[in-house]
Structures are given as structure tokens and as C-alpha cells.
Amino acid sequence: MTKTFGEKSLKKTFLGMFALMSATSILCNSCNQKKDKKESEKMIHKNHPVAKAVPKIDETVPPDKRVIYLTFDDGPNHGTENLLKILHKRNVCATAFLVGKHAYGSKKQQQDLQLLRKDKLIELANHSFTHAHNKYTDFYKNPVEVVHDFDTAKDSLKLYDKIARTPGRNIWRLNNITVTDLKSSGDAANSLKKAGYKVIGWDLEWKPTNRMVLKGNHEAMLKKVDSIFFNDLEKTSRHLVFLTHDQYLTDADSINELDLFIEKLQKSNRFVFRKISEYPGINEILN
Ligand SMILES: [Zn+2]
Known about the structure:
Layout: H1 11-15, H2 17-20, E1 66-75, H3 80-90, E2 94-98, H4 107-118, E3 122-126, H5 136-140, H6 143-157, E4 163-164, E5 172-173, E6 178-179, H7 186-194, E7 198-199, E8 204-205, H8 218-230, E9 239-245, H9 252-267, E10 271-273
Bound molecules: zinc ion.
């Protein structure tokens, strides 16, 4: 198979790749520790994928590869230990967007925070202290309190970076990406950016059922990954931020499905995995 992602006219070939991929072509999954070189400055607008500029060649990503950022929200939580087992089985890196108060929730959560903290495969990032008390509309009405909440999480979790994800909202505030899923959260998002937070949302979420286990199977998620790249729906061309939650990983089926999802991505030999601090442009000083 010599087709590349760039050859999107070869639609059938592209979409059929998972079926044809070789089981022997296992990618080396160690995470690239180098920081990305800056990609070209681009204006990217949600709902206007055609406006996406063709990026400069990203020398850190081979032309036949795409980058996936596995991110897991709301930890430490039920399922955190299972998540770590999967990541180690697959030797793949990920980012944990932590909730400050969860680190004080129970002895187990305190222990899991220590596991996360010392794990080389894991990067820690800020998902607020209170998680908005799960009352999102009220939370985002008060931008000063929102910034304070993230500052509290940063201090209590001893985070060095100011990479943040907003609870309950898919918001992006980087220099070249501004996305607000619900307009009423816009002022709070702008305040976070002003306070130096690089706010990053997601391109694809593996959602739960109402029993809080992973919904659907890994094959469906793999198709969604393909579909996003094929239709240019990722915020930064060739880079996909994937989200799910530790707490959906408490039953054998969900654990198995996430494991298979990662295994198939690896075996396709089409993807590399990185931590969120390597997302293009995330280390730039905000303007
Ligand atoms: Zn959350």
C-alpha cells in the first residue's frame, strides 16, 4: 500500500485501509518527546473546513502519517487505573485533563493522582478545580471566577503548563484557533486566554451510554477517525484530538474496546501519538 493521506481522491482506498492493513506493520509507539516546529499561522473557522489553509510541511510528522492526541478527562476517577493499564499495554502516550477537587475525593483518587504524576506516558493538564460543579451555564457567566477556578486547580495540582480544557464545553483558544461551542461561554473563554491559558477542546469524543460505559465499538470509532481526516474536519490539518473519560473504563467491554481501538490505530501504521503539549502552536505566547 503506497497511497498517502494526501491522495484523497482515492476515496475507496483510503476508507478501506483498516480492512487491508497489515497486522505485522506495528508502529513504534514511543511518543515523540520533541516539540513540534511551528506550523504555518492559519485562520481556522469552525464549520468552514474549506477555509483551512494548507499547512507547511510539518517536518516532525512523516507525510504518510497523522497525529492523534489521546486525552482523558475528569481524572483521577473511577477507571483511571484501568486506563493506565491499557496505555502501558500499548505503550502509547496520553494526556490527562484533571479536575483539582477529584485529587481530594478519596484515598484511591489521591493514590491514582500519584500514579498519573509519575507515569512517563502521561502528561497532566488542567480541567478546572470544581468542574463547574456541573452547573455549566452559571459557571461561565462569571469569567473572573472561571479564571480563579483554573488557577486554583493549577496550584493545587502543581501543574507547570497552562494548558486547559473547559468543563462541559468544547472551547478552543489558541493563537490560530478560536472555537466556542456555546456563545454564552465566550467571555469566560476569552478571559482564560487573557490569563495565559491555552484552551484546547477536542475533535472527536467517544461518548458513553446512559450506563456510563463506552458507547458503540472500536470499529465505529475507527471509522469516525477516518471520516474526520477524509473530510478535513480536524481543527489543525493532520492532527486529531481524541477525548474520552476515565470513568467510562470500569467494565470489561469498555476496557477491551478502548484497547482494540488503540491497537488497530497502531497496527494500521498510519498514525503517531503525542501528548497535548506537542499540539501545533500550543507553546506560542498568546496574542
Ligand atoms: Zn469534564
